[in-house]
Amino acid sequence: MKARQFYRSAISAAVMAAISFPVLAANDSVPPVPFEELTTVKGTIIEPVIKEQRTRSKRSLSDAAGQLDGDWFNLDPEMNGIEGSSVDRVYDTITLAPSDKPVVVAVIDSGVDVHHEDLQGKIWENPREIPNNGFDDDFNGYVDDVYGWNFIGGRDGSHVAYDTLAVTREYKRYQAYKDYGVWLTPDEKAYFADVEKEYLAESEAANSKYQAFKAMYDEAQASKAVLQNKHGQTDFSLAAIELVSSDDPEVMKAAEYLVQTLSTWRSFDYMDSMLERYSSAVDYHYNLDYDPRAEIVKDQPYNPWQFRYGNNDVIGPDASHGTHVAGIIAADRYNQLGVRGVASNVKIMALRVVANGDERDKDVANAVRYAVDNGAKIINMSFGKAYSPYKDVVDEAFRYASRRGVLLVHSAGNSHTDNDIKPSYPNRFPLYYPGHRIGTWLDIGASGNYKDQRLATSFTNFGKDSVDVFAPGYKIMSTTPGNNYQAFSGTSMASPVVSGVAALALTYFPDLKGRQLKKAILETVRTYEGHMVKNPATPEVMVPFSELSATGGVVDAYQLLQHLQEKQQ
């Protein structure tokens, strides 16, 4: 893997100078570092790509309890013994006539592969725009916005692939304030003191992880070269290396090291992905010098009300996360390929705002307004961050969406923390309207597939006041770019399950407004009275599942549709 150079400013260099690492001699044996799951910067757990699982008959996954259906989120505890969202039961039993008009769901995310085989016929197309004529036919300020819009691209078609984290940007802003002698209020000083403490701790941890892993990675590559050059080895799977036998002590030492390393780190492909993950944190996420906006987007970064920038390429350089989210909502249920999405009569509006890093407030606000103005009934937001410097701008966009009756569905986060204590952003609590809440907002935690002590997943955020309901979010298989299918785990997967269930409800009851739909979803959750689970924050402590969210339950499409049908009669 090509290594990147870490460019550092004077500030970056000062931070890095305070961090020291042990220097390893060239001949020292480097012990394997402790295993970590491959995750995105947002904490979504990524399983290996499953290239051969294109047909329905091959979509099962391995689980601790045996084989697990890849789209188990559609299953039902009574019918299947799995704590899914009871979607299949709706299709099997509900006899209501659906509306002919598709439900438009905006996916604000990393991009969507609109050409994926399992999303054909499921992508929203702007009816007022003539494709690729270079003209803004509908006069909305976005030229050729056929499938949606990319708010983190340049007008020349370029893309922001990586970005810094919000804590990095806020720490950099604090450094600028100090350099220019800007007077700060006591509250601002306290805020930036927390920012500084968090940035320095996290950047040091990121660099430490990268240095330790890189040393192990280099040792593994050197051992691989020994086996290639001196033993003719071509198969570097763990099973093959365990069979290596040689009289050459250097060959055996290399083989032993690789057995030890791959027993922990699975494969060289997995190690390549982990190196990318660790190096991205150093090169981009915590890099005080990195600023892709200036060279690519060329917007006014400190003008949060600016709009009409970006480009119309909604796929971008890495649409894995957004395509996965879109597939959970909308993958074709009837084509015998891949997975079955929750809603069958739905169109995905693709809005790209999330690079490999933290999204920016102005992009989120503009994407929300675009979605509302172009007919989205539901907006799915599977992202979040620790700081929101222009929260008021985002709040106004959410209030606009809520007034227009749009349901806002947001993932609670994957840091196994209590959102009531430490909020994440965006959220339902407007900065300048104390006591007010966004009325059509839902925050979603991630549940597991069995009614056991792991019903609340180990990674999920929770909160009796700030998280509304849980939904399946463990080992969810869905669409990824290039007609691939992959299993991810995270609240990012739970959120589109709820968005899909909401879209399914609107398919049969199209006149429901956002507040009505939210109320119905929350009133019909599947509850687990007295059921004890591991506390995600302190897994050695058992807590009632009912205490982890406002409803204490898991979204249930069947109960929702039954409830709406009864109210109609």
UniProtKB/TrEMBL annotation:
Residues 101-533 form the Peptidase S8/S53 domain. It comes from the Bacteria. The keyword Membrane does not apply. Pfam families: Peptidase_S8 (PF00082). The active site is at residues 109, 321, 492. Gene3D superfamilies: Peptidase S8/S53 domain (3.40.50.200). GO terms for molecular function: peptidase activity. GO terms for biological process: proteolysis. CDD domains: Peptidases_S8_Subtilisin_Novo-like. The keyword Hydrolase applies. Residues 1-25 form the signal peptide. Keywords: Hydrolase, Protease, Serine protease, Signal. PANTHER family: CEREVISIN-RELATED, PEPTIDASE S8. Belongs to the peptidase S8 family. This is Protease. It comes from Photobacterium alginatilyticum. The lineage of its organism: Bacteria, Pseudomonadati, Pseudomonadota, Gammaproteobacteria, Vibrionales.
